[in-house]
Amino acid sequence: MAGADPASPSGTTGPPTGVLAGALNELGFTATALSTGTAPSAAAIAEAVAAARDVDAVVVGTYNVSASSSQKTLVEELLATGKPVIAVAIRNPYDVAHLPGVPAYLAAYSWTDVELRAAARVIAGRVKPRGTLPVPVQRADDPTAVLYPVGHGLRY
Q1: Per the domain annotation, does 153 fall within a domain?
Q2: Which of 136, 59, 55 is nearest to 90 (CA)?
Q3: With contact defined as beta carbons under 8 Å apart, do 115 and 86 qualify?
Q4: Which of 63, 74, 105, 115 fits as disulfide partner to 110, beta carbons 3.0 to 4.6 Å?
Q5: 135 in a domain, yes or no?
Q6: Alpha-carbon gap, residue 130 to 132, rounded angstroms
Q7: Is residue 120 one of the residues assigned to a domain?
């Protein structure tokens, strides 16, 4: 579990990567938290990529990804390892527009323990994902076009 760790709001027991990794561990997985920050440096990205080479899958938390964001670089380099990557937006769903190569994407809408533990249960397959977008997500390459409309969402 790598990714952004914005300042923890009330209602949390720690940084998002730690809470999500802990929740995955409680569900029977072996997860390690690696905070790369909201603007990961080249060294932090290299550390995350090196760590990803020794795992079965990578969960990466994102927070306000933009076209020039080093978080985007982090996710792209994690994808380049060939390991399965699951991105969890810990603030809003707009990050997905900047991460087209991510095969599995989940919007948690917040980084409190409740949302992160719910995301862990979905990732672990303990609950089925459900919900629809309350807002449209515009395309990153053409903000006048909609990538995902209001109401979009997958159900299993």
Answers
A1: no
A2: 59
A3: no
A4: 115
A5: yes
A6: 7
A7: yes
CA 64 remoteness from chain centre: 11
Tell me if 69 sits within 8 A of 98, measured CB to CB: yes
State the Rg of the chain over Cα: 15
Domain count along the chain? 1
DSSP class of residue 38?
S
| Percentage, residues of the chain above pLDDT 70 | 92
Instruction: Enumerate residues 6+ apart whose C-beta is below 8 A from 138.
Output: 94, 97, 144, 145, 146, 147
| Contact predicate 87/62, CB 8 Å | yes
Closest to 1 measured CA to CA, from 79, 82, 85, 71: 85
* pTM for this model (two decimals): 0.90
CA dist., res. 42 & res. 114, Å (int): 31
Instruction: Count the Cβ atoms, other than its own, within 10 Å of residue 125.
Output: 10
**What residues are paired with 106 via a beta bridge?**
88
Containing structural domain, residue 136: 2-148
* CATH number where 109 lies: 3.40.50.1700
Angle at 139 between CA 133 and CA 142, to 5 degrees: 150
What element of type H or E holds 50? helix 42-52
- 70 domain residue, yes or no: yes
